[in-house]
Amino acid sequence: MFFVTELWHGDFNFITKIEFERQNDFSDVVFYSVLTVLASLAVSQYYNVFDVTIYTVGFFQGMYDTNYLFLVAVILVATTYYFSFSYFKSRLNLDDGLAKKSDLATTENFTWLNQFGTLGTFLKNDIRLLKRNKRSRMTLIMSLMFIFYGLLFFTQSIEVYDNPAMKVFAGIFVSGGFLFTFGQFIPSWDSAYYQLMMSQNIQYREYISSKWWLMVIGTVISTIIASFYLYFGLHTYLIVVVAAIFNIGVNSHLVMLGGAFVKTPIDLSTSKQAFGDKQAFNVKTMLIAIPKMLLPMGLYALGYYLFSPNVGLIFVAGAGVLGFAFRNYVFNQIEKIYKTEKYATIAAYKQKN
Protein backbone atom coordinates (compact mmCIF):
# COMPACT_ATOMS: atom_id res chain seq x y z
CA MET A 1 0.00 0.00 0.00
CA PHE A 2 1.33 3.41 -0.77
CA PHE A 3 0.33 7.01 -0.77
CA VAL A 4 1.27 9.49 -3.43
CA THR A 5 1.64 13.18 -2.71
CA GLU A 6 1.91 15.36 -5.77
CA LEU A 7 2.46 19.10 -5.46
CA TRP A 8 1.41 20.96 -8.57
CA HIS A 9 3.44 24.09 -9.34
CA GLY A 10 2.98 25.60 -12.79
CA ASP A 11 4.22 22.90 -15.16
CA PHE A 12 3.87 20.15 -12.51
CA ASN A 13 7.57 19.36 -12.49
CA PHE A 14 7.77 19.21 -8.69
CA ILE A 15 6.54 15.76 -7.75
CA THR A 16 7.17 14.08 -4.41
CA LYS A 17 6.57 10.44 -3.72
CA ILE A 18 6.25 8.58 -0.43
CA GLU A 19 5.86 4.85 -0.74
CA PHE A 20 4.83 2.26 1.84
CA GLU A 21 5.08 -1.39 0.86
CA ARG A 22 2.95 -4.19 2.22
CA GLN A 23 4.45 -7.55 3.06
CA ASN A 24 1.90 -9.42 0.97
CA ASP A 25 2.95 -7.88 -2.35
CA PHE A 26 5.25 -10.81 -3.11
CA SER A 27 2.53 -13.27 -2.14
CA ASP A 28 0.15 -11.62 -4.58
CA VAL A 29 2.70 -11.92 -7.37
CA VAL A 30 3.20 -15.63 -6.66
CA PHE A 31 -0.55 -16.28 -6.44
CA TYR A 32 -1.42 -14.54 -9.70
CA SER A 33 1.55 -16.11 -11.47
CA VAL A 34 0.49 -19.62 -10.48
CA LEU A 35 -3.12 -18.83 -11.35
CA THR A 36 -2.06 -17.58 -14.80
CA VAL A 37 -0.02 -20.72 -15.48
CA LEU A 38 -2.88 -23.02 -14.45
CA ALA A 39 -5.42 -21.05 -16.50
CA SER A 40 -3.12 -21.14 -19.55
CA LEU A 41 -2.68 -24.90 -19.24
CA ALA A 42 -6.45 -25.37 -18.91
CA VAL A 43 -7.19 -23.22 -21.98
CA SER A 44 -4.49 -24.89 -24.07
CA GLN A 45 -5.87 -28.32 -23.17
CA TYR A 46 -9.45 -27.26 -23.94
CA TYR A 47 -8.49 -26.05 -27.42
CA ASN A 48 -6.19 -29.03 -28.08
CA VAL A 49 -3.07 -26.89 -28.26
CA PHE A 50 -1.10 -28.57 -25.47
CA ASP A 51 -2.30 -31.41 -23.23
CA VAL A 52 -0.41 -31.27 -19.94
CA THR A 53 -2.18 -34.41 -18.65
CA ILE A 54 0.00 -36.53 -20.94
CA TYR A 55 2.95 -35.66 -18.70
CA THR A 56 1.13 -35.67 -15.35
CA VAL A 57 -0.90 -38.86 -15.78
CA GLY A 58 2.03 -41.01 -14.62
CA PHE A 59 2.17 -39.35 -11.24
CA PHE A 60 -1.57 -39.25 -10.53
CA GLN A 61 -2.16 -42.77 -11.83
CA GLY A 62 0.73 -43.91 -9.67
CA MET A 63 -1.18 -42.70 -6.63
CA TYR A 64 -3.60 -45.58 -7.27
CA ASP A 65 -1.24 -48.20 -8.69
CA THR A 66 1.48 -48.04 -5.99
CA ASN A 67 1.59 -48.18 -2.22
CA TYR A 68 4.20 -45.47 -1.75
CA LEU A 69 3.71 -42.63 -4.26
CA PHE A 70 1.01 -41.04 -2.10
CA LEU A 71 3.79 -40.20 0.33
CA VAL A 72 4.89 -37.43 -2.06
CA ALA A 73 1.62 -35.58 -1.45
CA VAL A 74 1.86 -36.16 2.31
CA ILE A 75 5.42 -34.83 2.40
CA LEU A 76 4.41 -31.72 0.41
CA VAL A 77 1.53 -31.01 2.80
CA ALA A 78 3.76 -31.46 5.84
CA THR A 79 6.48 -29.24 4.35
CA THR A 80 3.98 -26.51 3.50
CA TYR A 81 2.53 -26.65 7.00
CA TYR A 82 5.98 -26.42 8.60
CA PHE A 83 7.10 -23.37 6.63
CA SER A 84 3.72 -21.64 7.00
CA PHE A 85 3.73 -22.20 10.76
CA SER A 86 7.30 -20.91 11.04
CA TYR A 87 6.51 -17.87 8.94
CA PHE A 88 3.53 -16.74 11.01
CA LYS A 89 5.17 -17.63 14.34
CA SER A 90 8.19 -15.44 13.55
CA ARG A 91 5.84 -12.51 12.77
CA LEU A 92 3.59 -12.91 15.79
CA ASN A 93 4.98 -9.79 17.46
CA LEU A 94 2.17 -7.23 17.57
CA ASP A 95 4.51 -4.23 17.41
CA ASP A 96 6.10 -5.52 14.22
CA GLY A 97 2.70 -6.02 12.66
CA LEU A 98 1.57 -2.49 13.44
CA ALA A 99 4.80 -0.81 12.40
CA LYS A 100 4.90 0.72 8.95
CA LYS A 101 7.90 -0.01 6.85
CA SER A 102 8.95 2.96 4.77
CA ASP A 103 11.59 3.02 2.10
CA LEU A 104 13.30 5.88 0.41
CA ALA A 105 11.47 7.05 -2.66
CA THR A 106 12.82 6.05 -6.03
CA THR A 107 12.73 8.61 -8.79
CA GLU A 108 10.89 7.93 -12.03
CA ASN A 109 11.58 10.95 -14.17
CA PHE A 110 10.70 9.72 -17.68
CA THR A 111 12.77 12.63 -18.96
CA TRP A 112 12.29 11.52 -22.56
CA LEU A 113 8.69 12.78 -22.29
CA ASN A 114 9.83 16.34 -21.50
CA GLN A 115 10.09 17.07 -25.22
CA PHE A 116 6.29 17.00 -25.42
CA GLY A 117 5.83 19.86 -22.95
CA THR A 118 2.68 19.87 -20.82
CA LEU A 119 1.39 16.83 -22.71
CA GLY A 120 4.47 14.91 -21.64
CA THR A 121 3.95 15.95 -18.01
CA PHE A 122 0.42 14.56 -18.03
CA LEU A 123 1.65 11.35 -19.63
CA LYS A 124 4.28 10.95 -16.92
CA ASN A 125 1.62 11.33 -14.24
CA ASP A 126 -0.59 8.70 -15.90
CA ILE A 127 2.29 6.25 -16.28
CA ARG A 128 3.15 6.67 -12.60
CA LEU A 129 -0.50 6.15 -11.71
CA LEU A 130 -0.61 2.88 -13.65
CA LYS A 131 2.56 1.62 -11.98
CA ARG A 132 1.85 2.60 -8.38
CA ASN A 133 -1.79 1.93 -7.53
CA LYS A 134 -3.74 -1.27 -7.01
CA ARG A 135 -6.79 -0.18 -8.97
CA SER A 136 -4.82 0.95 -12.01
CA ARG A 137 -2.62 -2.16 -11.97
CA MET A 138 -5.76 -4.28 -11.93
CA THR A 139 -6.86 -2.37 -15.03
CA LEU A 140 -3.71 -3.56 -16.80
CA ILE A 141 -4.44 -7.15 -15.75
CA MET A 142 -7.99 -6.87 -17.07
CA SER A 143 -6.62 -5.52 -20.35
CA LEU A 144 -4.44 -8.60 -20.77
CA MET A 145 -7.39 -10.86 -20.03
CA PHE A 146 -9.43 -9.19 -22.78
CA ILE A 147 -6.74 -10.11 -25.31
CA PHE A 148 -7.69 -13.78 -24.86
CA TYR A 149 -11.41 -12.99 -25.10
CA GLY A 150 -11.28 -13.64 -28.85
CA LEU A 151 -10.62 -17.34 -28.26
CA LEU A 152 -14.34 -17.74 -27.57
CA PHE A 153 -15.14 -16.38 -31.03
CA PHE A 154 -12.31 -17.30 -33.39
CA THR A 155 -12.06 -20.99 -32.44
CA GLN A 156 -15.64 -21.69 -33.59
CA SER A 157 -16.20 -23.59 -30.35
CA ILE A 158 -19.44 -21.71 -29.55
CA GLU A 159 -21.98 -21.81 -32.35
CA VAL A 160 -23.80 -18.58 -31.48
CA TYR A 161 -20.51 -16.65 -31.76
CA ASP A 162 -19.61 -18.14 -35.14
CA ASN A 163 -20.77 -15.31 -37.40
CA PRO A 164 -18.97 -12.36 -39.06
CA ALA A 165 -20.43 -9.57 -36.92
CA MET A 166 -19.56 -11.27 -33.64
CA LYS A 167 -15.94 -11.72 -34.74
CA VAL A 168 -15.64 -7.96 -35.13
CA PHE A 169 -17.24 -7.62 -31.69
CA ALA A 170 -14.44 -9.82 -30.35
CA GLY A 171 -11.80 -7.82 -32.22
CA ILE A 172 -13.00 -4.60 -30.60
CA PHE A 173 -12.47 -6.04 -27.12
CA VAL A 174 -9.22 -7.86 -27.94
CA SER A 175 -7.52 -4.68 -29.13
CA GLY A 176 -9.42 -2.24 -26.92
CA GLY A 177 -9.35 -3.84 -23.49
CA PHE A 178 -7.18 -1.11 -22.02
CA LEU A 179 -9.06 1.59 -23.90
CA PHE A 180 -12.35 0.58 -22.29
CA THR A 181 -11.14 -0.29 -18.78
CA PHE A 182 -9.00 2.83 -18.45
CA GLY A 183 -10.87 5.28 -20.65
CA GLN A 184 -14.30 4.83 -19.08
CA PHE A 185 -13.01 6.54 -15.92
CA ILE A 186 -11.58 9.70 -17.42
CA PRO A 187 -11.24 11.97 -15.43
CA SER A 188 -12.16 9.86 -12.38
CA TRP A 189 -8.58 8.55 -12.18
CA ASP A 190 -7.59 12.05 -11.03
CA SER A 191 -10.54 12.50 -8.66
CA ALA A 192 -8.32 12.66 -5.54
CA TYR A 193 -6.65 15.88 -6.73
CA TYR A 194 -8.95 16.98 -9.54
CA GLN A 195 -10.02 20.16 -7.75
CA LEU A 196 -6.40 21.18 -7.18
CA MET A 197 -5.46 20.35 -10.75
CA MET A 198 -8.33 22.39 -12.20
CA SER A 199 -7.27 25.39 -10.12
CA GLN A 200 -4.00 25.53 -12.05
CA ASN A 201 -3.47 27.37 -15.29
CA ILE A 202 -3.50 24.27 -17.47
CA GLN A 203 -4.78 23.60 -20.98
CA TYR A 204 -7.68 21.20 -20.91
CA ARG A 205 -6.82 20.16 -24.44
CA GLU A 206 -3.42 18.88 -23.30
CA TYR A 207 -5.06 16.97 -20.46
CA ILE A 208 -7.48 15.24 -22.83
CA SER A 209 -4.77 14.57 -25.41
CA SER A 210 -2.56 12.84 -22.85
CA LYS A 211 -5.38 10.42 -21.98
CA TRP A 212 -6.03 9.81 -25.68
CA TRP A 213 -2.38 9.05 -26.43
CA LEU A 214 -2.20 6.67 -23.48
CA MET A 215 -5.22 4.76 -24.81
CA VAL A 216 -3.69 4.69 -28.30
CA ILE A 217 -0.44 3.26 -26.92
CA GLY A 218 -2.38 0.63 -24.96
CA THR A 219 -4.39 -0.32 -28.06
CA VAL A 220 -1.26 -0.70 -30.19
CA ILE A 221 0.45 -2.85 -27.55
CA SER A 222 -2.64 -5.06 -27.18
CA THR A 223 -2.82 -5.52 -30.96
CA ILE A 224 0.83 -6.56 -31.14
CA ILE A 225 0.41 -9.05 -28.29
CA ALA A 226 -2.70 -10.43 -30.03
CA SER A 227 -0.61 -11.40 -33.06
CA PHE A 228 -0.91 -15.03 -31.94
CA TYR A 229 -4.38 -14.95 -33.56
CA LEU A 230 -2.48 -15.44 -36.83
CA TYR A 231 -2.70 -19.11 -35.85
CA PHE A 232 -6.38 -18.96 -36.85
CA GLY A 233 -5.59 -17.34 -40.20
CA LEU A 234 -4.52 -13.99 -41.60
CA HIS A 235 -8.10 -12.76 -41.97
CA THR A 236 -8.75 -13.38 -38.26
CA TYR A 237 -5.81 -11.23 -37.22
CA LEU A 238 -6.81 -8.56 -39.75
CA ILE A 239 -10.14 -8.35 -37.93
CA VAL A 240 -8.22 -7.53 -34.75
CA VAL A 241 -6.09 -4.95 -36.60
CA VAL A 242 -9.02 -3.10 -38.24
CA ALA A 243 -10.85 -3.21 -34.90
CA ALA A 244 -7.81 -1.51 -33.37
CA ILE A 245 -7.94 1.17 -36.07
CA PHE A 246 -11.62 1.71 -35.31
CA ASN A 247 -10.87 1.87 -31.57
CA ILE A 248 -8.21 4.53 -32.13
CA GLY A 249 -10.22 6.61 -34.60
CA VAL A 250 -13.73 6.34 -33.17
CA ASN A 251 -14.07 4.50 -29.86
CA SER A 252 -11.31 6.47 -28.16
CA HIS A 253 -13.34 9.63 -28.73
CA LEU A 254 -16.56 8.01 -27.57
CA VAL A 255 -14.89 6.69 -24.42
CA MET A 256 -13.55 10.14 -23.52
CA LEU A 257 -16.94 11.68 -24.27
CA GLY A 258 -18.62 9.20 -21.93
CA GLY A 259 -16.05 9.95 -19.24
CA ALA A 260 -17.22 13.56 -19.09
CA PHE A 261 -20.53 12.35 -17.64
CA VAL A 262 -19.01 9.91 -15.11
CA LYS A 263 -18.65 11.63 -11.76
CA THR A 264 -17.71 8.66 -9.60
CA PRO A 265 -14.38 9.06 -7.76
CA ILE A 266 -11.92 6.17 -7.76
CA ASP A 267 -10.21 4.74 -4.71
CA LEU A 268 -6.74 3.96 -6.06
CA SER A 269 -5.77 1.93 -2.99
CA THR A 270 -8.19 -0.92 -3.75
CA SER A 271 -8.61 -3.24 -6.72
CA LYS A 272 -12.37 -3.61 -6.24
CA GLN A 273 -14.78 -2.77 -9.07
CA ALA A 274 -12.07 -3.06 -11.71
CA PHE A 275 -14.69 -3.74 -14.37
CA GLY A 276 -16.66 -0.64 -13.48
CA ASP A 277 -18.98 0.97 -10.98
CA LYS A 278 -22.75 0.78 -11.23
CA GLN A 279 -22.89 4.40 -10.05
CA ALA A 280 -21.04 5.41 -13.22
CA PHE A 281 -23.89 4.09 -15.37
CA ASN A 282 -26.42 6.58 -16.68
CA VAL A 283 -28.51 7.20 -19.78
CA LYS A 284 -25.89 9.38 -21.45
CA THR A 285 -23.10 6.85 -21.06
CA MET A 286 -25.42 4.08 -22.24
CA LEU A 287 -26.33 5.97 -25.43
CA ILE A 288 -22.67 6.75 -26.10
CA ALA A 289 -21.74 3.08 -25.60
CA ILE A 290 -24.15 1.76 -28.25
CA PRO A 291 -22.16 2.80 -31.36
CA LYS A 292 -18.93 1.46 -29.86
CA MET A 293 -20.06 -2.08 -30.65
CA LEU A 294 -22.93 -1.84 -33.13
CA LEU A 295 -21.25 0.48 -35.63
CA PRO A 296 -18.19 -1.69 -36.42
CA MET A 297 -20.30 -4.84 -36.40
CA GLY A 298 -22.79 -3.27 -38.81
CA LEU A 299 -20.09 -1.93 -41.12
CA TYR A 300 -18.34 -5.28 -41.35
CA ALA A 301 -21.58 -7.20 -41.89
CA LEU A 302 -22.59 -4.72 -44.60
CA GLY A 303 -19.38 -5.18 -46.54
CA TYR A 304 -19.25 -8.92 -45.85
CA TYR A 305 -22.71 -9.77 -47.18
CA LEU A 306 -22.93 -7.21 -50.00
CA PHE A 307 -19.40 -7.59 -51.35
CA SER A 308 -16.74 -9.70 -49.61
CA PRO A 309 -15.06 -10.15 -46.21
CA ASN A 310 -12.16 -7.92 -47.28
CA VAL A 311 -14.58 -5.10 -48.16
CA GLY A 312 -16.04 -5.45 -44.67
CA LEU A 313 -12.56 -4.95 -43.23
CA ILE A 314 -12.11 -1.86 -45.41
CA PHE A 315 -15.40 -0.40 -44.17
CA VAL A 316 -14.40 -0.79 -40.50
CA ALA A 317 -10.86 0.50 -41.04
CA GLY A 318 -12.17 3.38 -43.15
CA ALA A 319 -14.44 4.52 -40.33
CA GLY A 320 -11.45 4.52 -37.98
CA VAL A 321 -9.29 6.49 -40.41
CA LEU A 322 -12.10 8.98 -40.95
CA GLY A 323 -12.48 9.47 -37.20
CA PHE A 324 -8.74 10.02 -36.88
CA ALA A 325 -8.81 12.59 -39.71
CA PHE A 326 -11.41 14.66 -37.82
CA ARG A 327 -9.62 14.23 -34.50
CA ASN A 328 -8.98 17.94 -33.96
CA TYR A 329 -12.62 18.86 -34.52
CA VAL A 330 -13.81 16.05 -32.24
CA PHE A 331 -11.31 17.08 -29.56
CA ASN A 332 -12.63 20.63 -29.65
CA GLN A 333 -16.18 19.40 -29.05
CA ILE A 334 -15.11 17.05 -26.26
CA GLU A 335 -13.12 19.84 -24.64
CA LYS A 336 -16.21 22.05 -24.58
CA ILE A 337 -18.23 19.30 -22.91
CA TYR A 338 -15.54 18.70 -20.29
CA LYS A 339 -15.43 22.41 -19.51
CA THR A 340 -19.22 22.50 -19.24
CA GLU A 341 -19.19 19.55 -16.83
CA LYS A 342 -16.10 20.79 -14.98
CA TYR A 343 -17.72 22.36 -11.92
CA ALA A 344 -20.34 19.62 -11.55
CA THR A 345 -17.52 17.08 -11.61
CA ILE A 346 -15.50 19.00 -9.01
CA ALA A 347 -18.55 19.24 -6.75
CA ALA A 348 -19.22 15.49 -7.06
CA TYR A 349 -15.61 14.53 -6.29
CA LYS A 350 -15.41 16.98 -3.40
CA GLN A 351 -18.61 15.64 -1.85
CA LYS A 352 -17.68 11.96 -2.18
CA ASN A 353 -14.05 12.37 -1.14
Task: Give structural attributes.
single chain; 353 residues; mainly alpha; three-stranded antiparallel β-sheet; 66% helix; disordered N terminus
Describe the structure.
The chain is mainly α. The chain has a domain at 110-352. It is 66% helix and 3% strand. The protein has 14 helices and 3 strands. The protein has a 3-stranded antiparallel beta sheet, with no helix packed on it. Strand 1 and strand 2 (15-20) form a beta hairpin. Helix 6 runs antiparallel to helix 8 and helix 10 (204-225) crosses helix 14. Mean pLDDT is 77; it is low at 1-23.
Topology:
Elements: E1 3-6, E2 15-20, H1 25-46, H2 53-65, H3 70-90, H4 94-98, E3 102-103, H5 118-132, H6 134-147, H7 151-154, H8 164-183, H9 194-198, H10 204-225, H11 234-259, H12 283-306, H13 309-325, H14 327-352
Antiparallel strand pairs: 1-2, 2-3
Helix pairs in contact: 5-6, 5-10, 6-8, 8-10, 8-11, 8-12, 10-11, 10-14, 11-12, 11-13, 11-14, 12-13
Short description:
By secondary structure, the protein is mainly α. It has helices at 25-46, 53-65, 70-90, 94-98, 118-132, 134-147, 151-154, 164-183, 194-198, 204-225, 234-259, 283-306, 309-325, 327-352, and strands at residues 3-6, 15-20, 102-103. The chain has a domain at 110-352.
Strand order of the largest sheet: 1-2-3
Helix content: 55-70%
Order of helices and strands: EEHHHHEHHHHHHHHHH
Low-confidence stretches: 1-23
Class inferred from helices and paired strands: mainly alpha
Distance between the termini: 19 Å
Radius of gyration: 24 Å
